Amino acid sequence: MSIEIKVPALPESVSDATLVAWHKNVGESVSRDENLVDLETDKVVLEVPAPVGGVIEEIRVSDGATVTAGDVLAVLAEGEIVGKATPATVSDAPAAVEQPVDIAEKKVAKTSPAVRRLLEEHDLDATMVTGSGKDGRLTKADVMAFLKQDHSSNVTPGDPTPEIVDEGAVVALERKEQRVPMTRLRSRIAERMVQAQHTAAMLTTFNEVDLTEVMAMRKRYRDSFEKEHGVKLGFMSFFAKASVEALKKFPVVNASVEDNDVVYHNYFDIGVAVSTERGLMVPVLRDVDQMSFAQFESELGAVAARAQAGTIGMEDLTGGTFTITNGGIFGSMMSTPILNPPQSAILGMHNIQQRPMVIADEIVVRPMMYLAVTYDHRIIDGREAVQFLVTIKEQLEDPGRMLLQV
Fold it and tell me: Mind listing the domains of the chain with CATH numbers?
């Protein structure tokens, strides 16, 4: 019995997808629920599993093609393969010759779509690159590091030996360029960033926060917190809870513009920017005001892991009312974050640095961080934006305020 493999129903607001890569070829057997092909939408990569075990009879859509829900991707013959290969004879190629290809295919199959595309673009065999991920999984960084190796180390047998001019002379290498189409996610990110620039009156205000008390609290309760809840106590939960308290005091910062209306939200769905191999994603954590610190850290860890693995769903990426982005993990000292439409504000965290500060007429060294809030000046006045950021500063410099909600 032949079964058509079709594009599944796409997430709401997504009209089509790009076929990234097939994991099986015509004639190969598959198991039930085994991933056959990856489809990339504007935000997520969807896997299309085999509904039953069988053999791939026909592939109708090639890599890079645009597909819509219901399109037939392939035809699968249900049941086990009928004609199996006969045992190798003396004249057949020895199995040892075939083995490296099988290993490469298995290694590639475990990689993300972004890594597979990078390997294909540079015509690399997966076995040439050492993976640093879990169970030896290849990452984009592994491939990029391999490509940056010395030019001389990439000379293959049979290539002409580079001519040596003089000892100490510089040998000019060929100048190259590479044109690579944007991924759907990168195109979508670019579109939304330009949209934010064109539709909102963006302005950024800055402040700085002394994290002495937050760091002392984390140090004091770090071990007991992890033992009790099974999750680490991070900085992001402090900033998220402080943001919620500030949003309660200044509801317009939690609002959005819709046509000529200002839409006020009486809930607090916080988006947290996560860097992935495919680009920046902003998973949304719902009702953060009702979460404990442990619940927030656990939820954040789960959605961030799904984002980095490429298994996150559209429902996790839509509907936020306020966003937090942390450039400090990459060493950023200060930045002006761009709004995440249709939201009206975004908080930027930065690097923590020990700096001399004047406290009670004395110079002391304190762990300081610059904060930035970019806001839509169409509905948020400068006074509200500044006081909003000051409220976050007060909450973090005296964390007891978050418990007492003062």
Answer: 1-82 (2.40.50.100), 101-154 (4.10.320.10), 185-404 (3.30.559.10)
